[in-house]
Design brief:
Elements (H helix, E strand, L loop, with lengths): L13 H43 L5 H88 L1
Helix pairs in contact: 1-2
């Protein structure tokens, strides 16, 4: 039986979703760049190995193998440049999305939540002061009842 990891996605407000999605995109873009660079380097190394092997060998199709290896190396470098350019574009979008999401979340949502919390604290302080006042009044009344009964 396969167990799936259930990560709750924040749906309480869209700005938080933007911010977390932006972070996810940043991580995905960076890991994709690392993967593409590693893969491209392995293609380039294989093409260089094939070319050097062909130069050493005395096969009659030596020039064809060398040209294919050079073409393969050139194609790998070209694909790498395209992938890195696309990844940088994705990274810029991800960073902008994250910054906008966190800024909007802090300004529009979190500041209101902080104000509500401050008001709740003030309300509780007032209720506590009123409870202390009632307690003191009740204590004074009971002390005056004790003094008047004596």
């Amino acid at each position: 039986m396969i167990s799936t990891l259930k990560i709750p996605i924040p749906t309480d407000n869209v700005y938080k979703f933007y911010a977390i999605f932006g972070i996810f995109l940043i991580l995905l873009t960076v890991s994709t760049c690392v993967y593409i660079t590693t893969l491209t380097q392995s293609f380039i190394l294989k093409a260089k190995y094939d070319r050097q092997t062909a130069e050493i060998s005395s096969q009659e199709n030596k020039n064809i193998i060398i040209n294919l290896a050079l073409e393969s190396e050139s194609r790998a470098r070209s694909n790498q440049r395209f992938a890195i350019t696309f990844s940088l574009f994705s990274l810029i979008i991800a960073v902008v999305l994250t910054v906008i999401g966190f800024n909007k979340w802090k300004k529009d949502i979190q500041s209101k939540n902080d104000n509500i919390m401050d008001l709740q604290i003030k309300k509780l302080e007032v209720e506590l002061d009123m409870a202390r006042l009632e307690y003191n009044n009740a204590l004074k009344a009971s002390l005056s009842d004790v003094n008047s009964s004596e």
